[in-house]
Amino acid sequence: SGPCYGMIQKNNEILFVDTDNGLFRYNPYDSMVDKIVELPHATRPHGISYNESNKKYYISCSDKDLILELSDTFQVLRELKLSNKYDSNKMAMHHCNDNLAMGNSLFVSMFSSTGNWKSDCFDGCIAEFDLTTGQRLNDICTGLYMPHNIKSFNGSLHILDSLPGHLRFSNFSI
Asked: Is-contact 27 13, C-beta < 8 A?
């Protein structure tokens, strides 16, 4: 497989995204790796999460500035766009990394909330999407520099702010 940036554990398996080849499943009991589904070309899948509430998967696609929503049978249901900048520029402007789906919310880490990281404006954030409407809501955390992994532990969101090397939690303090 190619480069892999995101994985989750679901039941007794590990699911991971390969930026070149799609979504895979690893079974630790027999050490088998199986390809589950090909993902859309030139999307650069990065992060993955599963929402227990709606039984759907979410895959961050950093080369298209969007999140793919997949059914529990791995069919693409819709695209959640970070903004319309990709449509006008034909290149990713936000660089989304990871995501975390919980209840009716999808949280997405990205290098630039405004879509200007390629102009050396690292206004990184965690954005929130409403999963009913698909609309991007207000950013729940700003002032980040290359944020990546989002996880929830004991009811508290945690984010790895990669460039300064900070793990933020407890209201995103350092």
From this structure: yes
Do 18 and 24 meet the contact criterion of CB atoms below 8 Å apart? yes
In three-state secondary structure terms, 89 is helix
Q: Which residues contact 47 (CB under 8 A, 6 or more apart)?
A: 5, 6, 17, 59, 60, 96, 97, 98, 99, 109, 149, 150
Beta sheet of 66-70, edge-to-edge order: 45-51, 56-61, 66-70, 76-81
* Beta strand segments in the chain, E: 4-10, 13-18, 22-27, 32-37, 45-51, 56-61, 66-70, 76-81, 96-102, 105-110, 124-130, 136-144, 147-153, 156-161, 166-168
User: Does the pTM exceed 0.85?
Assistant: yes
Q: How far is CA 58 from CA 48, 61, 67, 88, 168, in A?
A: 6, 10, 6, 24, 23
3-state DSSP call for residue 96?
strand
pLDDT digits (tens, 9 = 90+) for 72-123: 999 999 999 999 999 999 999 999 999 999 999 999 999 999 999 888 888 9
Q: Are 69 and 76 in contact (CB under 8 A)?
A: yes
